[in-house]
């Protein structure tokens, strides 16, 4: 096989349909657009969501919620995660290294989920009231 002999498989290529070129083509006169009306005219069609003047669905339904753009910079860590962590002093870079929070995380908060039995010192990390109590009960602190 040579590069100059390669051609597409039969049936893979189709000739462009030429509309409005006589009765014999099957798409003559109105070119498959029917008679009159907005859809038959050049450049004539409605915008997306237009319902003929009726109030469109996206305007009939109530506005609801939003997606926070700061969410990708926030992260949560559980007490169980801190239990398996080797470090005694925990800060955001330590958690990133351990793979417990994403690389883009800026704000980290510890939530009370699981048990904590070892002493842990949090630096620059927030904690819920329950998590703070559990950390202090284990001999740690939240700075």
Kindly describe this structure.
This protein is of the alpha/beta class. Among the domains are: 19-46, no CATH class; 71-142, Ribosomal Protein L15, Chain: K, domain 2, CATH 3.100.10.10. The chain contains four helices and six strands, in the order H-E-H-E-H-E-E-E-H-E. It has helices at 57-60, 79-84, 92-98, 129-137, and strands spanning 74-78, 89-90, 107-111, 121-122, 126-127, 141-142. The chain has a three-stranded parallel β-sheet. Strands 2-4-6 form a three-stranded parallel β-sheet. The mean pLDDT is 93.
CATH architecture of the domain at 71-142: Ribosomal Protein L15, Chain: K, domain 2
Write the H/E string, N to C.
HEHEHEEEHE
**CATH top level label of the domain at 71-142:** Alpha Beta
Strand order of the largest sheet: 1-3-5
Mean pLDDT: 93
Into which percentage range does the β-strand content fall? 5-15%
Could you tell me the radius of gyration in angstroms? 33 Å
Q: State the helicity in percent bands.
A: 10-25%
In whole angstroms, the N-to-C terminal distance is 73 Å
Number of strands: 6
Overall SS class:
alpha/beta
Please summarize the sheet with the most strands: 3 strands, parallel
